[in-house]
Amino acid sequence: MTRITILVLAITVSLTACKKKKEEVKVEDTTVEVEKNKKIKIALNSKSDTNTSGNVVFKQENGSVTMTAIISGLQAGEHAIHIHTTADCSSPDGKSAGGHWNPTSKPHGKWGNDTGYHKGDIGNFIADENGNGTISKTTDEWCIGCGDTTKDILGKAIIVHAGADDFTSQPSGAAGARVSCAGIIQ
């Protein structure tokens, strides 16, 4: 009789412990669901006496952020796009947005480069003969509003440049004038 009582007690404790674990996982899953789905759409404004404009969408899903930019009013050819330090596009030349966003103090470069890159070094894209271009980038090195100063893109600016990034010139890649700017804000 004593063995049966102990066995019933052990099974009850085990079931109770398993039930609590399941509830904890459920709470964590709910938290992740709230955090992972965020989206910001911003309009690019012309700078440096150009007609360059467009839209940029940042969408966070499953721990990664995808940026998609659609840009018009460019000279045909290759152009750089970067994230800069401040969501201030008030100056006519876009320089109020500051330099490249570089929270990890790495040298300027191309993503995946062994010598490093700024978190704001997005890369180059091609504008066609009509001055239209698109670029998309997905990374887990960015977040939207997470508060991590090495990942959070909120409060920064997106800048389109007149020329291509050479990925070697320090600190900015010699990409030329800032032809379009938008603050990454909600």
SS element count, helices: 1
The CATH architecture of the largest domain can be named as Sandwich
Order of helices and strands: HEEEEEEEE
Strand content: 25-35%
Calculate Rg over CA atoms: 24 Å
**CATH level 1 name of the largest domain:** Mainly Beta
Q: Can you tell me the residue ranges where pLDDT is under 50 for at least 5 consecutive residues?
A: 1-36
The structural class is alpha+beta
What's the β-strand tally? 8
Largest sheet, described in full? 8 strands, antiparallel
Tally of domains: 2
Oligomeric description of these chains: single chain
Judging from the principal axes of the Cα atoms, what is the shape? globular
Q: Kindly, what is the distance between the CA atoms of the first and last residues, rounded to a whole number of angstroms? A: 67 Å
Q: What topology, given as strand order, has the largest sheet?
A: 5-4-7-8-1-2-3-6
Provide the helix percentage.
10-25%
**Mean pLDDT, all residues:** 81
What is the CATH topology of the largest domain? Immunoglobulin-like
The CATH homologous superfamily of the largest domain is termed Superoxide dismutase, copper/zinc binding domain
Task: Describe what this molecule looks like in 3D.
- The chain has 186 residues and is of the alpha+beta class.
- Helices cover 19% and strands 32% of the residues.
- An eight-stranded antiparallel β-sheet has the order 5-4-7-8-1-2-3-6, with no helix packed on it.
- The chain is globular and about 35 Å long.
- Residues 1-36 have low confidence and may be disordered.
